[in-house]
């Protein structure tokens, strides 16, 4: 456990560590104030038990003589002073706990922001091979568990242990025997308890993490594939598995909580037994003189009142941390990776300018294999895309068209070979400029839960959206009729996945999104597949309007789409099998002819 806490500390930013050390100062001050409060009770109770002590030498006796007050009045003033000391101690404690809680919560929030930033700056392959619901689980649940059940309890445990240490030291000065026996007794009992449950807690923590991952997976799959689920009547399969995972989750959380809380009652028993034993012992030692043992008993009682909950709190915190370490283990590798990440890695697109092809874009002998696959998706693929021309990419399913497009867009890096824009190799240095010049319309358009306007200017906050550009892009994508039918026009909200819109309407929003940034290179992946014949023709006409002005690359299954292309590449097994105009290929290539016949 100490190792993990150390690792967590190492993962904090220098600023967070500095604040933690400053807070440690506050913790020591709080402990000191609490001890001072307890210790001040002793002399007061001694005077109440035996006012004759006022005539003795010592500081209090001198103060009494200087004050010139009656003994009762002096005792009252002394009582008020003790209350003032206790009040000050309480205020310091309140302030410290306040700061500790805020600090813990803030560190947790910063860790989850850091993870989110880390995931958001990962390349396409990372996301293509992973699960977004698991990333959500990490950023929200596991981070929250790390915050609420590791960082915050650790801060509390630290505060309470320092306080218990100070209190034990004060008690030691007051009565070494009682202090040593008391501290040994409670430390020993708690230690035994902790050793008994710690393995169970760790296992439990892993069980909670596992159940949580399952719940997020089911949530993602259930909502993500809701149409199929409804149609196939598979709801029960999802909800039953969710019930089971929730049951395991609840069981795990409940057991961890119980294991950290339940010992309290056993400890109270031990404490009461110890008090009874102490009272009997002191009565016997002082021949039943209550006046003599009252001050000592008051101090022990108050010290016990502070120390017992401190021990309990320290134990609860330790058990909670142990029970949730699995959450930290789950996010640790990504947190570590995020620390080394260059904050400036994600560049501001606006400040980078554009890399506009004037002559040609080339894919030169590109080889690419997906991780975990034995076959290469692209095998020395070479393509030339003349600037301001329209080219089509066709081929059987799995022939590598989408992969070639991802390479062209700079979303994945070739293993061998390169992408060149006007002979200039695409590298990390000019990638942003290149991507600023490209507009991409994917096969399935992701619509965010916002207005059509926000969806066209994807990711831009409302105030930064250029209305004129939105209108122009919407018009070019033939959205005017749809917008005319909607009472709120561009302000109409669409669902997360645009369920209120037809496939064709969604695709037109995707096309408008690519046109919003006035891209010089348009890449369309089956962009018109969901459109009806008339709309498709309208859009294709709009796209062909850009002929000679923009470079257009389109993947198409329906060969009619690429009829008017200046050049068509036929792909087979990761490379170009043939190239030419549509008519040339129909005349020359039997495979292409067959594909054309099946349209
Ligand atoms: N994220 C991925 N991880 C692993 N393999 C992948 C991934 N994406 C594609 N592939 C594999 O790479 C090969 C080429 O796929 P690609 O999607 O580029 O073909 P495509 O021609 O675009 O097919 P389609 O017309 O069906 O979209 C296929 O064998 C496919 O299984």
TrEMBL record:
InterPro entries referenced in this protein's UniProt entry, alphabetically: AAA+_ATPase, ABC1_TM_dom, ABC1_TM_sf, ABC_transporter-like_ATP-bd, ABC_transporter-like_CS, P-loop_NTPase, Type_1_exporter
TM annotation in the entry: 21-45, 73-98, 157-174, 180-197, 265-284
Topology of the protein relative to the lipid bilayer: Multi-pass membrane protein
Keywords: ATP-binding, Membrane, Nucleotide-binding, Transmembrane, Transmembrane helix
UniProt cross-references to Gene3D superfamilies, sorted A to Z: ABC transporter type 1, transmembrane domain, P-loop containing nucleotide triphosphate hydrolases
Organism domain of life: Bacteria
Record domain ABC transmembrane type-1: where: 26-298
PANTHER family (UniProt xref): ATP-BINDING CASSETTE SUB-FAMILY B, ATP-DEPENDENT LIPID A-CORE FLIPPASE
Protein name (record): ABC transporter-like protein
Species of provenance: Alloalcanivorax profundimaris
């Amino acid at each position: 456990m100490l190792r993990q806490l150390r690792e967590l500390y190492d993962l904090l930013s220098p600023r967070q560590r500095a604040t933690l050390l400053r807070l440690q100062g506050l913790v020591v001050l709080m402990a000191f104030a609490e001890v001072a409060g307890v210790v001040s009770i002793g002399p007061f109770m001694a005077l109440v038990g035996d006012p004759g002590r006022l005539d003795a030498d010592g500081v209090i006796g001198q103060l009494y003589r200087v004050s010139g007050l009656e003994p009762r009045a002096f005792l009252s003033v002394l009582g008020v002073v003790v209350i003032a000391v206790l009040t000050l101690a309480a205020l310091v404690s309140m302030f410290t706990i306040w700061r500790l809680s805020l600090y813990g919560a803030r560190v947790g929030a910063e860790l989850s922001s850091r993870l989110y930033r880390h995931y958001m700056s990962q390349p396409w392959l990372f996301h293509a091979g992973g699960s977004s619901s698991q990333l959500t689980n990490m950023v929200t649940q596991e981070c929250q568990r790390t915050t609420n059940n590791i960082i915050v309890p650790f801060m509390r445990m630290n505060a309470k242990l320092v306080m218990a240490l100070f209190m034990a030291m004060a008690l030691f000065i007051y009565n070494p025997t009682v202090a040593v026996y008391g501290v040994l007794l409670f430390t020993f009992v708690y230690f035994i308890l902790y050793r008994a449950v710690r393995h169970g807690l760790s296992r439990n923590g892993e069980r909670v993490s596992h159940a949580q991952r399952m719940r997020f997976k089911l949530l993602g799959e259930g909502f993500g594939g809701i149409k199929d689920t409804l149609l196939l009547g598979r709801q029960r399969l999802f909800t039953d598995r969710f019930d089971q995972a929730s049951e395991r989750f609840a069981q795990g959380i409940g057991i961890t909580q119980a294991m950290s809380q339940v010992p309290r009652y056993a400890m109270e028993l031990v404490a009461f037994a110890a008090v009874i034993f102490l009272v009997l012992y002191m009565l016997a030692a002082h021949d039943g003189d209550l006046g003599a043992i009252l001050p000592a008993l008051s101090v022990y009682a108050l010290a016990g009142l502070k120390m017992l909950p401190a021990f309990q709190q320290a134990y609860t915190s330790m058990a909670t941390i142990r029970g949730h370490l699995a959450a930290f283990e789950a996010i640790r590798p990504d947190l570590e990776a995020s620390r080394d990440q260059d904050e400036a890695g994600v560049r501001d697109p606006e400040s980078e300018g554009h890399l506009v092809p004037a002559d040609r874009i080339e894919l030169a002998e590109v080889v690419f294999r997906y991780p975990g696959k034995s076959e290469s998706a692209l095998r020395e693929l070479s393509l030339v895309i003349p600037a301001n021309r329209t080219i089509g990419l066709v081929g059987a399913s799995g022939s590598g068209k989408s992969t070639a497009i991802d390479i062209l867009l700079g979303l994945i890096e070739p293993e061998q070979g390169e992408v060149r824009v006007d002979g200039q190799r695409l590298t990390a240095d000019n990638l942003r400029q290149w991507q600023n010049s490209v507009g991409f319309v994917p096969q399935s358009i992701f619509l965010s839960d916002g207005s059509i306007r926000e969806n066209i200017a994807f990711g831009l906050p409302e105030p930064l959206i250029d209305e004129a550009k939105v209108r122009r892009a919407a018009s070019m994508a033939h959205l005017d009729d749809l917008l005319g039918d909607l009472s709120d026009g561009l302000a109409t909200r669409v669902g997360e996945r645009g369920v209120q819109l037809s496939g064709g309407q969604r695709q037109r929003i995707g096309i408008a999104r690519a046109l919003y940034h006035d891209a010089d290179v348009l890449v369309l992946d089956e962009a018109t597949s969901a459109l009806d014949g008339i709309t498709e023709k309208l859009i294709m006409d709009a796209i062909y309007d850009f002929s000679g002005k923009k470079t257009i690359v389109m993947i198409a299954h329906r060969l009619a789409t690429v009829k008017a292309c200046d050049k068509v590449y036929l792909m087979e097994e990761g490379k170009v099998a043939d190239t030419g105009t549509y008519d040339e290929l129909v005349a020359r290539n039997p495979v292409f002819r067959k594909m054309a016949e099946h349209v």
